[in-house]
Design brief:
This protein has 9 helices and 4 strands. The chain is mainly α. The strands form 2 sheets. The chain has a two-stranded antiparallel sheet with strand order 1-2. Strands 3-4 form a two-stranded antiparallel sheet. Helix 2 crosses helix 5. Keywords: Calcium, Repeat. InterPro entries: Centrin_CML-like, EF-hand-dom_pair, EF_Hand_1_Ca_BS, EF_hand_dom.
Length: 184
């Protein structure tokens, strides 16, 4: 069944009750993701300055320039080459939507760390190997990375990550921080 629809009843329940239950189920299934079609349509309309229903290379360049983004002509050409499925030199909304979804999925994959990578990073920071990161271990790691952080800044980082309030960051807390950071 699609979003918002309802099935015919079997006759064993009153129709209104069945419809309400099914509508509740449909509503849960049909919650729009962050990358909703409305968001994509809004972006498309923002780029399609002449309301032609198509996005051209020049429109993309202008919007990127207006946003202060520095994207090479080569990268824009690659984008158009991959998005313009019918090779007409412009991108329709459907082509734009498909390219948007693909780019979003690729960006999400690139930003994710594997479990092995997160565990390796945690172990590298856990100097004494006790399974948790202390303020001193975090501070040392930051200093080794040629970054200066005051004791207050390190305390703040630990406090934000330390869900069980034991003054240390265990592996589970460390993973939550990494996943949160990669989604922002």
């Amino acid at each position: 069944m699609g979003c918002g629809g309802s099935k015919k009843t079997s006759g064993s329940e009153p129709a209104a009750n069945t419809t309400q239950k099914q509508d509740d189920k449909s509503a849960k299934k049909c919650k729009k993701p962050v990358n909703s079609e409305e968001k994509v349509m809004e972006a498309f309309k923002e780029i399609d300055k002449d309301d032609s229903g198509y996005v051209t290379v020049d429109e993309v360049k202008k919007v990127l320039k207006d946003l202060g983004e520095e994207v090479s002509d080569e990268d824009i050409d690659k984008f158009f080459e991959s998005a313009d499925k019918n090779d007409d030199g412009k991108i329709s909304y459907n082509e734009f939507y498909a390219a948007w979804v693909k780019a979003t999925e690729e960006a999400k994959k690139e930003g994710e760390l594997s479990q092995d990578e997160m565990l390796e990073a945690f172990k590298a920071l856990d100097a004494d190997g006790n399974g948790s990161l202390t303020k001193d271990e975090v501070k040392k790691a930051l200093q080794d990375a040629s970054s200066y952080y005051s004791d207050e800044q390190v305390d703040s980082m630990i406090k934000e990550a330390d869900e069980d309030k034991d003054g240390k960051v265990d592996y589970k807390e460390f993973v939550k921080v990494l996943k949160k950071e990669s989604q922002e």
